[in-house]
Amino acid sequence: MTHRQYFKLAIPLILSGLSVPLLGAVDTAVAGRLEQAAYIGGVAVGSLIFNNMYWLFGFLRVSTTGFTAQALGAKQDDQLAYACFRPMLIALVMGIILIIAQKPILLASMQLIGGSEAVLQQASIYFNIRIWGAPFALINYVITGWLLGMSKVKWTLVSQLLVNVLNMLLSIWFALVLQYGVAGIAVATLVSEIFGVIIGLLIMRYSGRLSLEHLQIGKLFQPGHLKRMLVVNRDLFLRTVCLLIMTSLFMAQGARMDETTLAGNAILLQLHYLLAYVFSGLANASSIIAGRAVGEGSHQGYRRAYSLSAVWGVMFAVLLALLLLSFPTGIISFFTANPEVQLVVREHMIWIALYSIAGVWGLQLEGIFSGVTQVWAIRNGIFISLLIYVPVQWLAVIYLGNHGLWLAFVTFHLMRTVCTSVYTRKVERLVCIK
Prior knowledge:
Layout: H1 3-18, H2 22-31, H3 37-55, H4 59-73, H5 77-100, H6 102-113, H7 117-130, H8 134-149, H9 153-177, H10 181-205, H11 217-220, H12 223-254, H13 259-296, H14 299-326, H15 328-335, H16 339-371, H17 376-400, H18 402-421, H19 424-430
Helix pairs in contact: 1-9, 1-13, 2-3, 2-9, 2-10, 3-7, 4-5, 4-8, 4-12, 4-13, 5-8, 7-10, 8-10, 9-10, 12-17, 12-18, 13-14, 13-16, 14-16, 15-16, 16-18, 17-18
């Protein structure tokens, strides 16, 4: 794997990652064209519920990529099929459970988020329609993971862009032209999620590598393979829970700040998410390379994943940090014209630049470890980081205010890098590459 090949693999993955938040963003943008402000709030709250809920099931994509890449490297066509259909069954079951449990999920979410009666009413309309797409949304995670594991990154990008374009057009048509309001926006997103599954299955079918001939129902539920997959998914789920706890603690503390600081923090978080999606694209590329190397039994290929991740991760981290610090005015003005909010963002921009440097290698290691399905190391690293984060946030905010909050944020990601790095040698021994 050359640097050029790695770059060609990573760029579509980065673009694909950046398209992830577009579904909620498109819905919110269309709602902004409706008459009542409650429509915007309702869609924003509804999108937040689904973003957080589906975030917990992100392990379906990550683990599927790892198992698929390993099967591809080992040239095991039967395992390619099982790497797809085992997690797809989990996605289907979990999606149905979410539909069954929709009322308590909605009630709990409303209690937690809060809002005016009008906003919550519109959020309920949005939720009650879009929840029926839960099985399709989760199956889409599996399809995306399988295509990534097969290195079909361009097709992954194409399918996601098609889904987002369809969602945008249908949202405009149902909500604005036919005047169905928030219900129209929700229906558009539901249809788009179903369309995503259909187009994904078609791409998989015509990839020529997903053969049902090797599929046997008995082997599909083979205890050894099924247990391994469930353990990997469990650890990735726990990793996401730790991230969600950290984010919730950060947001809860930030909510106690004044409105101007709160608005500035919201923009800073958006900048952080943009950087995180870029780094995740690189991590996905590393995951594919590492998983394939383990399948092939290539120690050189596995070590190559580390060197490529280090070079490109550091390069992107430094360049993005310099970009943030060199052109803050242009970047900030894109998000807000309020001079007071701009000042808050400018004063705290250094923390996002530091996040870029501190967090990049942790994300690259997560990509490599998930590619070889040794995700216990990711779970342990992020759990220790959370334990360190809690007292740091408490103390730093007392003495440094909002700067202390961002100091704790950067500390968490730095510890994520340090604590995950501790397991590098052990993971290499466990994958048994000679």
